[in-house]
Specification:
The protein is 77% helix and 0% strand. By secondary structure, the chain is mainly α. It folds into two domains: 63 residues, no CATH class; 70 residues. The radius of gyration is 22 Å and the shape is elongated.
Amino acid sequence: MLQNEDVVWIKNQRMLHEKFPRRNMSGQERARWFRIRKRLLETLETLTVAVEEMPEQQRNQVITSDSLRPFIDAILESWEPEEKVSLVKNKRILKIHEMLIHKLSSIGTDFLDSKLRAALRLRVRNDLDMVVIAAEFLKLSQGGTFRRG
C-alpha cells in the first residue's frame, strides 16, 4: 500500500510538471518512482486475491460502478496536455480497451449460457414468459431497469 507521503509526492510531481517543462529525473526521483510502482503492483495483486476470494454478497457492496469509476477514469485519462500525450500512453490505453472488450464479451456469453438460463428456468412458465424476460434483459443491457417479477 502507498503511504500518504507518496500520494502527496505524486500529486506534487503532477503540479510541478503542469507548470514547468519536464526535466530529467534525478537518481533519487527514479528510485522513488520505482518504489511507488512496486507498491502499486503489490497492492493490485492483493486486491485481486481479496476480490477473488470474497463472497459475492460482499463483492456487491464493494465492487460497484461507483467505486470503480474514479479508478478506471484515472487509468484511461492523461493529465498531460493533449499535445504531449505520448504514443506509449495511447498504446497502453488501446491494450486496456482490447483486454476489456475481450473479457466483457466472453463474460456476456458465459452469463447468457449459464446464469441467465438458470434464471429463466426459475421464472419461465411458457414461451411468452421467455420472450418477456429476454426483452427485459435486452432493456437492462442497454441501461434500462429490470422489471421486478
